[in-house]
User: What shape does this take?
Amino acid sequence: MDFLPHTPEDLTAMLAELGLGDIGDLFEHIPEGVRLDHLLEVPASLDEVSLAAHLRALAALSKGTADLVCFAGGGAYDHHVPAAVRALASRAEFATSYTPYQPELSQGVLQAVFEFQSLICDIYGMEAANASLYDGASAVVEGINLALRVTKRDRAIVGAGLNPHYLEVVRTYTSALDISLDVVDVGDEGVTDWAGLDASGAGAVVVAYPNFLGRLEDMRGAAAAAHAAGALCIAVADPTAMGILEAPGAQGADVVVGEGHALGNPISYGGPYVGLLATRLEYVRQVPGRIAGETLDADGRRAFVLTLQAREQHIRRAKATSNVCTNQTLMAIAAAIHLAWLGPRGLYVLGETCARRTAFAARILGDLPECNVVFEGPLFKELVLETPIDAEELCRRLATRGFLVGPALGKWYPGLERALLIAVTEKRTETEIRGLAEAIEKELAER
Amino acid sequence: MSSPLERSAGTRLESEAFPVIYELSHVGRRAWSLPEAGVDAPGLEELIPAEHRRSEAPPLPEVSELDLVRHYTRLSQRNWAIDVGAYPLGSCTMKYNPKLAEDAAALPGFAGLHPHADDTLVQGALELLGTLERALCEATGMARLTFQPAAGAQGELTGLLIMRAWHLSHGNARRKVVIPDSAHGTNPASVTLAGYEAVEVPSDERGLVDIGALEAVLDEDVAGLMLTNPNTLGLFERDIERIAAALHGVGGLLYYDGANFNSIVGMVRPGDMGFDIVHLNLHKTFATPHGGGGPGSGPLAVSQRLERFLPAPVLTWDEGAERWRWDQDRPDSIGRIHSFHGNFGINVRAYAYLRSLGPEGLRAVAERAVLNANYLRALVADVLPTAYPGPCMHEFVSSGKHLKRFGIKTTDLAKRLIDLGYHPPTVYFPLVVEEALMVEPTETESKETVDGLAAALRRIVQEAADDPEIVRSAPVTTPVRRPDEARAARDLRIRWTPSSSRS
Assistant: This one.
C-alpha cells in the first residue's frame, strides 16, 4: 500500500499539462551517471492485514513491561500513562501538525506549548522554559552551553551522580569545542561533597536531583559552590519528584533541566522522550530552541506565537544559541496534559507513593541474606542493591523469573560490580516487591 | 463578568476568550487517580529531610478529567493538521502519516520495552532496527547507520563530529565547512557546534551551487561540504559529480542533508553521487507524524571508511549466538549522542511505512512528489513565477515580489490562503529569494487538491490587484487573526501567572 491518490487518468492529464509522456521524464535533467537503474533492494510491499500480522509477530519477540514486572530504572521508568492523557496527546490535530509558523492555524499547539512552559516553570521553580529538547541528555548539554554563554567561561563541573549516559553525551557534544569538563566523584554516601567544592573558573556546576543512584544531592551546597565561583548551578531534576521535593529553583539552581518522558509518554525503548529546560527570566535570550509567547491579535484577542526567534538557527544561523530545530513537541504536550491531570495534589501523591514504596522495597530487599542497600538515607524512587552475584548476570537471571531490574552499575562505577538499580514507581505493588525479593532469594539459594 | 469556563462553553469553537488551563482551575477539583503508598513504610516527614521537602505546592491547575478532556480537545480543534487539510509547507514534507504506523508503535512489544533491558529481551526491536538500517543504507548507498540522532539537526552534528574524527585520524581536524547560501539554518548552526567555521558559497543564476565560487574556497583547510540535493530551491544540483570530485580533490568529505531525500528516494542514491555522510529526516521521507514540531528522527548513515566513528553502541548481528546485540566496544567512536537509542517509536513507524511501500512504492513516492510539484508549478507559473528556471523536484520556490506594487507582501498572500482553506507554503525561505514562497504539495495530495490550491493562489494574485484590502486583512476565518509578534517579544509573556490572566 503506497497511499498515493493518483488514478491513471490523473497521471495522464497531469503529464499532458507538463507536455511530458512519461513520469520518468521529470528526472531526465539528473545526470545519468548518478541515476539508479534498478529498484531498491528492500523488502516487498505488504498489504495492511499482512503488515499488521508481521508487526505483531515482531513485537512478540521482545519482553517488555507487559510481560515482566518492571523494576528497571536508570533514566527510563515504568510510570502509568493516564488514559485521558494518551487519548488527548494522540489526537491527530496535534500529532499531524508541524511547527507553528502560521500562528492563526496553530493556536492549539502554541497554547499547549505555552501551558507546558508554564507547568514546567511551576514544578521547577523557574521563570522561563522552552518548548522542549530531544531528551534528558541534550537538555543537560544545552543547559551547560547556556551557562557557559552567560558566564563567558569554558569550564563545566559535573557531579558523578549524573546519569552516565548523559555524561557520555555531554562529552560527545563538548569534544569539538574548547570546553573542559571536570567530573567530581560521589563519596561513600552516594552523593558529591558539594559544600567542599572549589568551583573557581567554572561557568557551570551540574547536579542531578535525585541522582543516578537514587540519592538526594545537596542542591543548596552545589548552588552555593557555583555562585561563590561566579558559575551557574544547573539542576538535572526528575519532574515526577517535584510534588514532594523542594523545587531546585527554590534551592538556588539557575537552570533546571530534566527528562520528561515519565509525564505521559510510554517507555518505548528510550524514545521519543522529552528534554526539559527552564531558567531565570534574565537568561531567556540565551535559551535554546523554540519558545511560545502570549500576545494580542489584530482584534485585541489573546493569541500565542513563537517568540524571541532571533536566538534560533533559522535566523541567526552560525551564531544561533543552538542548532535545534525539530524538537519533541508532541511529548511536551503529553507532559503538559499529564501535569494538568495530576494537579498539585496528584503530583504530591505520585511522589509520596514512589518514595514510600521505594523505602519499603529498600527494607525488604536489604533484609535479604548477603544483600544490602548500598547507600543509606533518603531515596526517591530508586535504590542501589548489592548482592553476592555479578549484577549483569543477576539482571539476566531475574528476567527469566519475570522481573526486569537494573541497570547493573559496575560499568560506570568501579567497585559496584555486584550492585544494580531497582526502581519503584507508583505501579509497583507490595506483592510485586515481595515477589522480587523472593526471586532474588531463590537466585541466591540456587547459586 | 462570566467565568472563563462559561465563556469557553459556547458552541463556537473559536470562542473569543479561549481559556488557559489554569483559568479553569477550582481548588479541590481533580482528574488524578493514583494508588496511595499502602505499604509499611514511614511517612514522608520521616523519609525526606526537611531541607529537601517541598515547602509550597507548585501552583498547578486543579481541574476535573472532563474539564481536561474538553480543554485539550477544543485546543486541538484550534489547530491545522495534515488530517484536517492540505499542508503544502515547503521543506517540511507534510504528507499523510499512515494510521497503521501508529498502531505499530503502540504495540506493547515496542512501546513497553525498557532501554536498559538485556539484548536478549528485545530481539524483536533489534530485528526491526537491523532491517530498517539495511533498507536505509540501501536507499542511501551507505554502509552503516546510527539511529541515535533524534532529529535532522542532531544528525547533522553527529555527521560533522564524524567528519572531524576522520580528519583528526589523518592528523588534522581542518577548520572550515562549506555551505551553500540556500542551506537550512541548522547547517551553519551545527557547523559551529562541531567546532568548525561555516564558509558560505553563493548560488548562481541557475539557483545551483556556483561551481567557480566553490572551487575558489576549496583548500586543504576545508573539512567538507554540506549539501542538500535537491536543494532548498527544489532544484537538483546537477553538477554534483563535479562538486564531489572537487571536494575529494582537496581531501574533503561530502555531507548529504536528507531534508529533501523524499524527491529522489528509489531514483538516486547519495552514495552514488559521492556523498560519505547522510542524515535522513524520517519524519519527512518516511512519513512519521511531525507532532506539532517534533518528534522527528534523524538517523545518520556513513560510508564504509567512516563506520568506525559511529556513535556507540552499534547494532551487530552475532553469527555465533544467532541474535542481535549492541556492540559497545567501539574505540574510535565519537561517543553517544542520545540518552538511549534515539526516537525508537518513530523508527518503528518508519519501518511500518517502509514495509507498506516496498521498492516500487518508494520509487513512486519520488515520482509523484515531483509530479505534483511540477504540475502545481505549471498551473501558477504565469502569476507566481519561480525564482529560477528549469524543472523542479518535489517543491518549488516562487517569488511574490511583483505583488509589492499592490502593497501585498508574500505573508499577505499566505494569510489569505488560510481563508481559502489551505495551510500556507513556507514563506521568506530560502533567504536567497526575495519574497519567497516555497511550495511542497507532497505525493499524497490528489490532483483535485492541487488544482484547488492552484486556483486559490491564482485568485489571490488577482485579488491583490482588484481588492488588496481583503488580502492584507486576512485571515478572518481563524480562531485568532494576525497576532502582534513585536508585542510578544517586547512584552514578554512566556508563562501563565495569575497576574497575567486575561480572564
In short: Chain A is about 35% helix and 15% strand. The mean pLDDT of chain A is 97. The CA atoms of residues 243 and 348 of chain A lie 4 Å apart. Residues 329-366 of chain A form the longest helix (38 residues).
